[in-house]
What does this fold into?
Amino acid sequence: MRRLLYFLPLVICLGIALFFYRGLDLNPRDLPSALINKPAPEFSLPALPGRDIQRADDGLARTDLTTGKPVVVNVWASWCIPCVAEHPLVDRLAKREGVTVHGINYRDRPDAAAAWLKRLGDPYAKVGKDESGRVSIDWGVYGVPETYVIDGNGVILYRHAGALSPEILERKILPLVKGGG
Amino acid sequence: MIAEIGHFALIAAFLLAGLQATVPLYGAHKGDRGMMELARSTAVGQFALVLLAFAALVNAFVTSDFSVLNVAQNSHSTKPMLYKISGAWGNHEGSLLLWALILSLFGAMVACFGRNLPPSLRARTLAIQGMIALGFLAFMLFTSNPFDRILAPPSDGAGLNPLLQDPGLAFHPPFLYFGYVGLSISFSFAVAALIEGKVDAAWARWVRPWTLAAWCGLTVGIGLGSWWAYYELGWGGFWFWDPVENASFMPWLAATALLHSAIVVEKRDALKSWTILLAIVAFSMSLLGTFLVRSGVLTSVHAFATDPERGVFILALLAVTVGGSLTLFAIRAPKLQTTGVFQPISREGALLLNNLFLSAAAATVLLGTLYPLFLDVLDAGKVSVGPPFFNATFGPLMAPVLGAMVIGPFLSWKRADFRQAMQKLWLGVAAAVTAIVLVLILSGVEGILPAVGVGAAVWIICGTLLELADRVKLARVPLSESWRRARRTPRAAYGMTVAHLGVGLVVAGVLGATVFKTESIQNMKPGDVVDVAGYTFTLDRVERLNGPNYQAERAVFRISTDGEQFATVNAERRAYPVEGDTTTEAGIHTTWVADLYAVVGEGNPRDGWTTRIYHNPLVPWIWLGTIVMSLGGVISLTDRRLRIGAPSRRRAPTSGSSSPAPAE
It folds into this structure.
């Protein structure tokens, strides 16, 4: 029995290796294919309090995605570093490119989130707060940040997990939103 | 041409590593002196060749040779020289080359300085080291050749991620890798010992300096990384539980446990198989970090460009190295004879407690890091484990370690009197309790946890100093006698004292950063004034300036207290046109007991700028503490009596048990 104990580290290690092998095929930046070209899930989130007053009147819901114009939904949190890194690009998307960007604030303290926006700039049209993370699970959010492109009818066209890069922005996202969805 | 020399050197190093991995092993088996000696010359030769390759790559970066693919993708002609050089390891291929360089450096050091090692142990250790090198050089040559050429070189390069263009991050990888890869030597020693079937005090003593050196590098590396995050990401935090940060933290926890358990093997001939397992696990954690960063199974801001073929290769490497060594462990470890027995209340007991909790902490960090992946693979949905998980689990696991690390050195080996130890420590207990009460009364912070945290920091610092005082019998014997005792105290003991003081400083700093900081966010125009924690910040001006490869907006703040100006800080927002990114540079003034920290956000002269100002008490101690910890390691390394001139096996057991048991 005691001898078997010495095999325990090996068994644990092989188990982890098996998961890694399977994990290699699953790209965390890939959307589960089921959601692409499907309608975005039904949801309704309360507004993130503490933002600049003129924009912070109501929350974010599915109806905000079916206005006829393509929109971008960006999932972020104030505790996430990649979000800081990608923020200038989100900013650029909204302010320079004139795209409507909504935010889903994922598992965050509202005061910390609002402070984060005050500090780094607030490019979002609307920000829904998802403190429990339930809505983000419906969206298939793997981690923050994540970015979705939605056409004017609420259908998900594209998803990027992880921080945006200038290439992703220019080659993937801009053609989709500017091409009219 | 020079790039081809580098490529050729890599191939030659690969072939030498093949020799180093096989012939000495066979020689040790047969008892053939000549074959065993081959390990030393091949190890040194391999280092020289990898160094040549590394020099060739740095040369390509320095001269901006854009016909080399790696340079074209990661460098730019306007980049400052420092970042041209550091760009050589700021990418996947180059960082692998740095990996291989440090791997062969450690092999060469064992070959050169390990003269007192028994020939067979040295040959086997170097052979294992050769096998690891063989794997990594193959990985480089077949999937990630840093010297690939492009047929049509671009006129200029694509640039380096601006977040990485920073002095802190330029030196972060070399230190971190020194630690990561240095653990390979402990691993090789452990596997060699399993092959020999012998682990004794002499073995523990030989392994220790290498582990200690690697541990020092890892400590500095992690400290630098966290310092970078603190001032470059610009929001006052210093640790984010990012998968890549965790990847460096897990080996550190395992290596720390290893350092302590190796003492028990050395002094008391116990915990042998556990120590061997830790040596294997510590390096496995390093390999795991390499895998996580490069395979793309987890997302992180630090991740290199990934491709599945590389992922499979590293995974195979990981499986062979870790699986192979653990199989050997499972077969051989039960046969290791242990002679030392001890009571739960003893120095060994305290070290074992420390080991259990450090390992549990490493396992927790591992679980938190891999949990999203596990669920994803099991198709149970995608989740993300944020800092809340780590904050809730890591602190409680560290608490017993922080308690025991002070009491442990007061306990004697084998069997100790707990009450007697606590009597010597009453001053420390009193200081900690006073600190807790004071914090509860004076500070406006709610809850008992911050107070307990401060108590812990005071406890560690006072208790550690008390141990030193007790050792030299301060105030119990004449001062000259104390001085004589202090001079005769081994350096290893001072090393422990200094390293433990460092831990106390880090604990205090972490508390300051998380609990006691003051933060103020506002919109400011030049001339506006903000008061934060008794300091007055005046936004003096915001100016535009041109850096070598960026344009910046610089906000100059004047800081005064009681109407007297004592510092100005510059906070910047930099835009890098080549890479199309912006970064923030925090303006920091440190008083050594607190940081005054200012960040400037978006804005314009008409509406003003968003500014964020922090008063971060004790935060500088985090980095001071990591430096002090590594300094403790270095002091312990200089303990000549025991360390570098590693003792011969014959002498070892007697000096181990008869000396007055220095704690480390």
About this structure: The first strand of chain A starts at residue 44 and ends at 45. The beta strands of chain A are 44-45, 60-61, 71-76, 100-106, 127-130, 146-150, 156-161. The mean pLDDT of chain A is 81.
